[in-house]
Write a structure and sequence with these properties.
Number of domains: 1
Distance between the termini: 34 Å
Catalytic activity: Endonucleolytic cleavage at apurinic or apyrimidinic sites to products with a 5'-phosphate
Oligomer: single chain
Keywords: Cytoplasm, DNA damage, DNA repair, Endonuclease, Hydrolase, Magnesium, Metal-binding, Nuclease
CATH class: Alpha Beta
CATH superfamily: archaeoglobus fulgidus dsm 4304 superfamily
Largest sheet: 8 strands, mixed
Structural class: alpha+beta
GO molecular function, one term: single-stranded RNA binding
EC number: 3.1.21.7
Shape: globular
Family: Belongs to the endonuclease V family.
Length: about 220
Amino acid sequence: MKSEELFKVEQEEWIPEISLKNNFQLADIGLVAGVDIAYWSEGEADFGVCCIVVIDYISKQIIEEVEYYGQIDVPYIPGYLAFRELPLVKEAVKKLQSKPDLYMFDGNGYLHFRKMGIATHASFYLNKPTIGVAKSYLKIKDTDFDMPNNEVGSFTYIKVDGEIYGAALRTRKDVKPIFISCGNWIDLETSIIITLHFVENNSRLPITTRYADLATHESRKKYS
């Protein structure tokens, strides 16, 4: 069986275990981790670095930063990016001294062809609620999104075949929206609340994934 077929079988086994309901109280969230990955090539070899930035939910102060760098063995296959990223994510998580209550990924969760973007897929290995925060829109079944109103906090649901997969969220006025989806063990409304909580005036992105994104750029420069 080819890799793609094996990947599909694994994802389809996880799909019934996805829960789009909170398994926590928002008041109990203490630490939130932002996760991002950057790639580069050297000759025929591909490499990647995963950076995780842990932030206190109340103070919004950085508590911890870790990274893990390594060679990538899984080829890029559209729709199965999680398998390429997960080995780096799991190794980076092992380096954490703190214990995040929730993880936010620079990427999609439920807003995915099989509802199994990196945020959702990774949740089964992290055993924590997750949120997908994407900078660009992943079109599924030729479904476009409706642009939210030009005001902070405005959003529109992204529906595929009548089912809500995520939301286009306006985090800053006069700035293009970002795309939020549940990862696992969280509902979409709470995902939006948490995302907006971490958005500051200098970016449309929440500081969780923004700081992780910035860290991957620095790490890529260092290693490549």
